[in-house]
Design goal:
By secondary structure, the protein is an alpha/beta fold. The chain has helices at about 5-30, 55-60, 75-85, 100, 110-120, 140-145, 155-170, 195-200, 205-215, 235-245, 270-280, 300-320, 335-340, 360-370, and strands spanning about 65-70, 90, 125-130, 175-180, 220-225, 255, 260, 285-290, 295, 320-325, 345. The structure holds ligand G3I. Ligand G3I binds near residues 93, 94, 182 and 336.
């Protein structure tokens, strides 16, 4: 039994958090301006504790609820508390990218990724591996030497094969799913003119999936892409690519839809688009949801943001093969958005003080009626 002062403190925290949550949810659903939460007094608690069931509990076994994780932020107890409480899946925002795990040839640095995996194991969370083959965050020792010439092609292919095999083998049994290939399409739907396409030709896609499957037969293997939320020329091209890879027997298990969005509604075709990919016999997932806005946030912007989050979780819930819903960071305190989009931010479900925003209430509310 808690001593009465502690009990009273917890009740006070719970009631204030409940008010925040209910205000956000009601406003998000009813289209009214939400009450913008004030952080609780510092003496009361570092983080508001929603008294509703956390998202991971509301989701049950239906789908995984994930967040990208900034491993440095795990040093922040407020960050750890919300991440562990709300999510049952984590994606490394940086820590598993090639430039992070092998900054110099043969010099591996997996300490940050290992820290994330320990956290995940302690909190009964799945680990979503991101990303094996990408045109960004490739270490300089790969892209700079050797120079891209026909003569360098075998060596480049060998480097990529070794990277995929090394990484998947190292994390075998601890990673639930991998983004095997990330963003292979250009905006017009043609294959992106990356180092991999230039040096290895289109066959690198199938090779990467086969190398990953051989290195960990249990891991789910995804192709992850952006700009493919609605039915559009790029998603049509992705659909044809996945269909052809499947027809050729390539071990691709799923397609990830990033959904880095703004305050405008998602395309009305989003659910149908997810469903047509699922009909190819693959899982689908929302892998990197965020919704940026001009800062500072206003009640109206937060309401529109909540509507986008609610639309995204609703689309995923409407497609039985949508197996996970992952946000690209859960708090504005550590989001990548302001750094990459000056003047924009506030893109996540929790504010700078780790207080839930209307978007959180909207996702929770949609999960509650699933
Ligand atoms: O770590 C260095 C730091 O030492 C240096 O002082 C600082 C100066 O710019 O840069 C820091 O590195 C930054 C890194 O994030 C860590 O914060 C890089 O500049 C920056 O480019 C990098 O951005 C990441 C971006 O991928 C790289 O393309 C974002 O955090 C990360 O959220 C973003 O994630 C991608 C997904 O992997 C794929 N889909 C799109 C998504 C958003 O762009």
């Amino acid at each position: 039994m808690l001593p009465p002062p502690r009990l009273a403190q917890l009740v006070a925290i719970g009631v204030s958090a409940l008010l925040v949550m209910v205000a956000g949810l009601v406003a998000g659903l009813a289209g009214r301006d939400p009450v913008v939460a004030e952080p609780p007094p510092a003496a009361a608690a570092p983080v508001a504790q929603p008294v509703e069931p956390p998202l991971r509990v509301l989701a049950g076994d239906r789908l995984a609820i994930g967040s990208a994780v900034n491993v440095d932020a795990l040093a922040d107890p407020r960050y750890r508390a919300v991440l562990g409480r709300e999510f049952n899946a984590v994606t490394a925002e940086q820590a598993m990218k090639w430039s992070a795990v092998e900054p110099a040839k043969g010099r591996y640095d997996r300490a940050a990724a290992d820290r994330l995996i320990v956290f995940a194991q302690q909190h009964d969370q799945r680990v979503y591996g991101h990303a094996l083959v990408w045109h960004k965050q490739v270490p300089g020792w790969v892209t700079d030497t050797p120079a891209e010439t026909p003569a360098s092609r075998p060596a480049t292919g060998e480097l990529l094969r070794r990277h995929v095999e090394d990484e998947v083998s190292y994390f075998r049994g601890r990673v639930w799913a991998w983004d095997v290939v990330n963003e292979p399409l250009a905006d017009d739907g043609t294959l992106r003119q990356s180092i991999w396409l230039r040096q290895l030709g289109p066959g690198y896609l199938a090779d990467a999936f086969r190398w990953a499957r051989a290195a960990d037969p249990q891991a789910r293997l995804f192709l992850n892409e952006y700009g493919v939320e609605g039915v559009n020329p790029k998603s049509d091209a992705l659909y044809a690519l996945v269909r052809d890879l499947r027809a050729a027997g390539v071990p691709i298990d799923g397609v990830g839809f990033q959904v880095h969005w703004t305050l405008d509604p998602l395309p009305s075709s989003f659910t149908d688009n997810l469903a047509r990919f699922a009909a190819l016999g693959v899982d689908v997932a929302i892998t990197e949801l965020d919704t940026r806005m001009p800062v500072p946030a206003t009640p109206e912007r937060l309401r529109r943001q909540a509507a986008v989050y609610q639309q995204a979780i609703g689309a995923c819930l409407a497609v039985p093969r949508c197996v996970s819903f992952t946000v690209w960071g859960f708090t504005d305190a550590y989001s990548w958005v302001p750094g990459a989009h000056p003047g924009l931010g506030a893109a996540t479900m929790f504010d700078q003080n780790l207080i839930p925003k209307p978007a959180y209430g909207a996702v929770a509310g949609r999960l509650r009626i699933r």
